[in-house]
Amino acid sequence: MADLEEGFTLTAVPLGSGPDGPLGVEQSDKTDQFLVTDSGRTVILYKVSDQKPLGSWSVKQGQIITCPAVCNFQTGEYIVVHDNKVLRIWNNEDVNLDKVFKATLSAEVYRIHSIQGTEPLVLFKEGAVRGLEALLAEPQQKIETVISDEEVIKWTKFFMVFRHPVLIFITEKHGNYFAYVQKFNSRILSKYTLLLGQEEKCVIQSFSTSVGRKFISLMSLTSDGCVYETLIPIHPSEPEKNQRLVQSQLLKSVVSGSARSGAALSILDQDHVAVLGAPRPASKECLSVWNTKFQTLQTSKELPQGTSGQLWYYGENLFMLHGKFLTVIPYKCEVSSLAGALGKLKHSQDPGTHVTPHFVNWETSQGCELGSQNSEQSKRILRRRKIQVSVQPEVPASTQLLATIQKDSEKHIEVELRKFLATKRTPDFHTIIGDVVIGLLGRCKAEPSFYPRNCLMQLVQTHVLSYSLCPGLMEVALEKTDVQILQLCLQQLPDVPESVTCACLKLFLSIGDDTLQDADINMESVSDYMDPVQDGEMEEQTTFLQNGFNPEEDNCDSCAQKLKEKPQAAADESTSCPLTPKRAALLNAILCSAYSETFLLPHLKDIPAQHSTLFLQYLYFLYLKCSENATMTLPGTHPPTLNQIMDWICLLLDANFTVVVMIPEAKRLLLSLYKFVKSQISICSELNKIEVSFRELQKLNQEKNNRELYSIEVLELF
């Protein structure tokens, strides 16, 4: 169970914090005292138990504080930065910040971090980190750039892991998020790419972290109102390599994605998180506590005066802006249990009673009934038990994962799989992954309702699978009509049989547009050139002169004449793709897959004529797109090549020409292809003639060896 107690206002007057709320709330060297920094010029020290300020300091008019003030726990002094580069240090006795210690730095500061047990750290906006003492020794030292251009720091946290300081900061670039983990005992900076595992990119509104024995749990609250978790290994296998981490969904729709003032998230303990925001679009903001283990709402408190979407927690107190006042709400979280999560935990004892824990001393309890003469025997029995326990071999993580697959829920399997994938890889890693896939597929066939698609996608993305390791994977995906996994398998598995490739092609061509609309498909191969179709039919194609082919002409007799003329600018009309972008992305995966023509042709003959015609129209469209530039390539990430497009046109015509030629809808397409082939033959003929002429010129040049330094020669070609 969790409970939010009655809150109280910390500030006696409205906090001058601007529209975005205060810059921060940081703990002082006294447990009950906190530094509150507004977004203007003032830092105030509050004592929470007395609900009154103990001191206030302001910078001069015209200056502005740019990062929250913190306390140096080693000296008891306070540190703040104003105007991005000016650092000030003072103590309780100082009155005027203009007269305290000042240091002007060479780069802009993002945040100063200070925790118990280590010196404060300064994080610069370019990602570099410096200890306070080293920075004060040389304030104008050169600060290196760590993050890339246009990458912006969004959130940061400083904590201790096994008595060693660790800094984590999150950056954003073009909607993509990255996590940097700096471990100061080894001076290693690890970078991770955070993947939400969904098609539409969401804006991450808030972050929070907790530390376990092997992982740093990074939770994020996104603009779709869901809470996601990413497990970052404390000891990564390849610390200096940019690794990709997939986020898993912990809670769904905890706040409304259309909240005006944003939302915030804070981890309270191992099983509870606090969420600040509006639960529904039209409702008021509220503070709620959720149980992540059982995915239940524990308690909530409405905030009728609104909030700024900022949340801080220290000890058992939550700090937030309610209206224009900084409010403190104490909370309590009990040990997580199913009864407590469902609100059915029974409290049989009186509220004022104190329960004394009962501890058993196993070494003496054996002798309590048998007398002191049996104590030595009891100790020997206990020692033998300890030895027997210690020699039991540890169950491998892969064996534990395979056992989990057989009985646990999809959510629990996904969490355990992410933990397993984050550990160091062994030489038999690919075999273990194959066994895990086979285990999942076996349960899928035994339980039709069980289909862990997120787990299967993570396993395919390990880049160690092949079709021969898990032959049933694509078969199950075809049964489930899971085009996302099929697309991923075609891109990642190197040995997909031609029969399965053709089965995927049939599905991609026949599946309805309504089904594709909800599918999460990788659109990288079509994002830069695809125009959505309007009425389902091919419009008039663009007139091109590149490569000597003009699809608008009825004959190519003038090709030779055009070679001698100066090329004219082609009329640039708009081309239209016969497919929707998502269907085109799926077909691109087919085009880029490996195959043997001998084994593929028999299966292509089974494709319906209408689908073959549609596929030919799309291939012809791709050819015209290739013709738009001199390099004869398509834009985008990993698009089909010109050779792949031409090979598939030939394959489809070889397999289905006698059927397609009888379809009236394909007449125009076949005529266009005929004109294209005819023009290419004409172009090749003209090039052959020019080649003969150049050979003759080469012979003439070889015969003349007595050239002067300068000469004019006239050569006549007939």
Can you describe this structure in just a few lines?
The protein has 718 residues and is α+β, with helices and mostly antiparallel strands.
Structural class by secondary-structure content = alpha+beta
Distance between the termini: 98 Å
The major β-sheet equals:
5 strands, antiparallel
Low-confidence stretches are 345-392, 532-574
Shape: globular
Radius of gyration: 35 Å
Count of DSSP-assigned helices: 18
User: β content, as a range?
Assistant: 15-25%
The total count of strands amounts to: 29
Q: For the residues shown, what is the average pLDDT?
A: 79
Helix content: 25-40%
Subcellular location: Nucleus, Nucleolus
Main location: nucleus
Domain Nucleolar protein 11 N-terminal: 1-332
GO biological process, one term: maturation of SSU-rRNA
Explain this structure.
This protein is an alpha+beta fold and 718 residues long. Among the domains are: 397-484, no CATH class; 497-529 and 576-699, no CATH class. 31% of the residues lie in helices and 24% in strands. It contains 18 helices and 29 strands. Strands 1, 2, 27, 28 and 29 form a 5-stranded antiparallel sheet that branches. Strands 14-15-16-17-21 form a 5-stranded mixed sheet, with no helix packed on it. Strands 3-4-5-6 form a 4-stranded antiparallel sheet, with no helix packed on it. Helix 3 (362-370) runs antiparallel to helix 4 (375-390). The radius of gyration is 35 Å and the shape is globular. It starts with a strand and ends in a 15-residue tail after the last helix. 31% of the residues are buried.
